[in-house]
Amino acid sequence: MQKIYIILLGVLLLQACIKKDDVLPPVSKDTRPLAAVLQNNYTYAMFYTAVERAGLDQVITGDSLYTLLVPDNSVFASAGITPDSLQHMDIAVLKKLISYHILPGAVTMATVPQTIDYPFKSIAGPNVYFSVPVKNGAIPALHINGATVKKADIIAGNGVIHAIDRVLEYPAATVKEYLVRTPRFSLYTQALKQFGLLEGLTAPGPFVVLAPTNKAFLQRGYDSAAIAAMDTLHYKKWLFGAAIMKTGFFFKTDFKDAPLPNDAPVYVTPDCLMVFRSDKIGLALFDYIHIINNYTPPYYGNPFVYGDMVTLDDPDHPALNGVVHGTNKLLALPDSLIIK
Q1: 101 and 79 in contact (C-beta within 8 Å)?
Q2: Which residues, including other chains, have CB under 8 Å from residue 145's CB and lie 6 or more apart?
Q3: Quick one: average pLDDT of 91-102?
Q4: How far apart are CA 51 and CA 77, in angstroms?
Q5: If DSSP codes are grouped into helix, strand and coil, which group holds residue 55?
């Protein structure tokens, strides 16, 4: 018999579970200042160029301690940033971005609590979030805003470097701002606005938004004209609002660092259940357990009648009031939520 776990979100509850064991030892030590370590390591040449252009090289040369979250040259390339584009990036934008990769103080692996999404303030102002696996016996690892630390604890004379596998995104002011400025979410943004839900994403939050990409809409036959033609009075309002969670936030790697129970943890909304199955998420009827244990009409064991099971194909886009995760499909299909 299947069981059910109610979570708010279960991952979020584990943020209170803090341990300090099972940490990685320092990888290397260097008595030179952080700026010199970067300058003399070609792997980090693009990051050091960015630091110089942003006028931050003197900041990390003095006696004060700092922690650098450093994407190497290959990571910049994967993000579409070339040496040439780096040289032409607006200085103010660049300074804000690089400052988000610098933390005051020396944050070594040993000083990070064994929990998920533990905040450290960047010199830019917004927090970055560190996660260490909370499961006993898990392989020691460190994730930052969902990025993986490739090499931890490169110790310098005035701080520490963690090499990361992603250029961290500077948080948008609000989830709404992120969606509005991002072309691949234009259809979802249009739908939220049409159903009166977009402005709500300027509230303090925090929110998690499971935002379907334009491709997800188009593969179901909904382009901009089709969305505009939808009469909002004929559909349940949560058609597009069900993808908005309002009890906290998470990054995709949190599910590895704080694994959920195997037996269908769910997030309860006023209208349906959001069910987490392995790496997929779906919207189910409230009598979920009865349905999955009975292969009889009308559901034949399938409680996911509202739309598709989705995966987080485009995850971890931070805002000051939440996180946006791009999904590959529609959690709820318009035809399933017509008011009859």
Answers
A1: no
A2: 128, 129, 166, 168, 169, 251, 316, 318
A3: 97
A4: 17
A5: coil
Using CB atoms within 10 A of its CB, is residue 281 exposed (0-12), middle (13-18) or buried (19+)?
Answer: buried
Q: Is 221 left (phi over 0), alpha (psi -120 to 50) or beta?
A: left
What is the rounded distance in angstroms from the CA atom of residue 101 to the CA atom of residue 94? 11
List the beta strands (DSSP E) in 11-116.
28-29, 66-71, 102-104
Judge whether 18-164 and 175-337 match in fold: yes
The whole-model pTM stands at 0.88
* The two structure tokens encoding residue 129: 């979030």
pLDDT tens digits, one per residue of 141-170: 899 999 999 999 999 999 999 999 999 999
pLDDT digits (tens, 9 = 90+) for 218-236: 999 999 999 999 999 999 9
Entry field: residues in the chain? 340
- Domain segments of the chain as ranges: 18-164, 175-337
Using one digit for the tens of pLDDT, what is the confidence trace for 110-142? 999 999 999 999 999 999 999 998 866 556 789
Q: Calculate Rg over the CA atoms of the chain.
A: 22
**What's the pLDDT score for residue 24?**
46
Q: How far apart are CA 180 and CA 165, in angstroms?
A: 27
Residues 124 and 137: their CA atoms lie apart, in Å, by 35
Closest CA to 102 of 150, 38, 43: 38
CB distance 38 to 163 below 8 Å = no
pLDDT value at residue 142: 94
Instruction: Select 175-337's CATH number: 2.30.180.10, 3.40.50.620, 3.40.50.300, 2.30.40.10.
Output: 2.30.180.10
Q: What is the CATH number of domain 18-164?
A: 2.30.180.10
